[in-house]
């Protein structure tokens, strides 16, 4: 079932998952506030889609996020869907990566979620309706070598979203934490340009549309955790039951 709301806020909308979602929601008749730090990316996203309003916003800046949300609701109307997809994914061994890079990744991937949720969720709770969708990752379920920094941010996203849901359940807002495997977006290309894990070399990326369809289905079914593929669901189960087997495979594939 497709999104049928009226006003959506999407972060990371300058490319990838955020761009695809912005265009899909706009085609469905929604007014879309597309947020990103890339003005060029936002303009490309909005081109040919008059329902998309591009807004250059840095999600690590809580004051800017709060102002943007106030402006969006003033100009477009009450937000009834938040789709938080903003993230970066440099890869590498933890002790070989620059500390500033690791902390910047946490500030964007996790800190952005904190700012977006605090600016939007109270408003939706007050109205008693809305959808809040955060993006974790299978890297937030199964940590592997060379993705420790990214995994740490996504474990944080998962924990924050889970607790946010339980602190506010039965108040009219639907929450979803999406844990996709590799998705065919520029984020994947960004990771491959760094110290990419061999474990992910043979993985067939999902299309963003597949992930978005899984989100819609999961929301309708009342699911908090959304695993957009059969392999993701199996992976989550194996991680829970046999974590040492996964680590044994990781060491074999990576060669140390």
Keywords:
256 residues, alpha/beta, 13% strand, globular, 7-stranded parallel beta sheet, Rossmann fold
Short description:
With 256 residues, this protein is α/β, with parallel strands linked by helices. 50% of the residues lie in helices and 13% in strands. The longest helix is centred in the middle third of the chain and has 29 residues, at 99-127.
Written account of the structure:
The protein has helices spanning 16-27, 39-46, 62-75, 99-127, 148-168, 186-192, 208-220, 230-241, 243-254; strands spanning 7-11, 31-36, 52-56, 81-84, 130-135, 173-178, 225-226. It is an alpha/beta fold and 256 residues long. A 7-stranded parallel beta sheet has the order 3-2-1-4-5-6-7, sandwiched between helices. It starts with 6 loop residues before the first strand and ends with a helix.
CATH class: Alpha Beta
Shape: globular
Characterize the main sheet: 7 strands, parallel
Order of strands, main sheet, comes to 3-2-1-4-5-6-7
Task: Outline the fold blueprint.
Elements: E1 7-11, H1 16-27, E2 31-36, H2 39-46, E3 52-56, H3 62-75, E4 81-84, H4 99-127, E5 130-135, H5 148-168, E6 173-178, H6 186-192, H7 208-220, E7 225-226, H8 230-241, H9 243-254
Parallel strand pairs: 1-2, 1-4, 2-3, 4-5, 5-6, 6-7
Helix pairs in contact: 3-4, 4-5, 8-9
């Amino acid at each position: 079932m497709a999104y049928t709301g009226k006003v959506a806020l999407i972060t990371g909308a300058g490319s990838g998952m955020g761009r695809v979602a912005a265009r899909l929601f706009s085609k469905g008749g929604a007014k879309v506030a597309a947020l990103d730090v890339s003005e060029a990316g936002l303009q490309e996203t909005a081109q040919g889609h008059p329902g998309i309003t591009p807004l250059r916003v840095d999600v690590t800046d809580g004051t800017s996020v709060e102002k943007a949300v106030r402006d969006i609701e003033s100009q477009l109307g009450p937000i009834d869907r938040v789709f938080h997809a903003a993230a970066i994914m440099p890869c590498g061994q933890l002790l070989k990566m620059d500390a500033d890079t690791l902390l910047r990744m946490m500030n964007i991937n996790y800190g952005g979620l904190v700012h977006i949720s605090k600016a939007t969720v109270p408003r939706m709770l007050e109205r008693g309706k809305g959808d809040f969708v955060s993006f974790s990752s299978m890297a937030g379920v199964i940590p592997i070598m060379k993705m420790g920094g990214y995994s740490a941010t996504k474990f944080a996203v998962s924990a924050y979203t889970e607790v946010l849901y339980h602190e506010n359940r039965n108040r009219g807002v639907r929450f979803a934490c999406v844990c996709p495997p590799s998705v065919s977006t520029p984020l994947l290309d960004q990771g491959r340009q760094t110290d990419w894990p061999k474990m992910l070399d043979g993985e067939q990326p999902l299309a963003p549309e597949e992930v978005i369809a899984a989100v819609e289905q999961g929301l309708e079914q009342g699911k908090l955790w959304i695993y957009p593929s059969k392999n993701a669901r199996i992976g989550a189960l194996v991680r829970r039951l046999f974590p040492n087997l996964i680590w044994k495979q990781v060491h074999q594939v990576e060669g140390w």
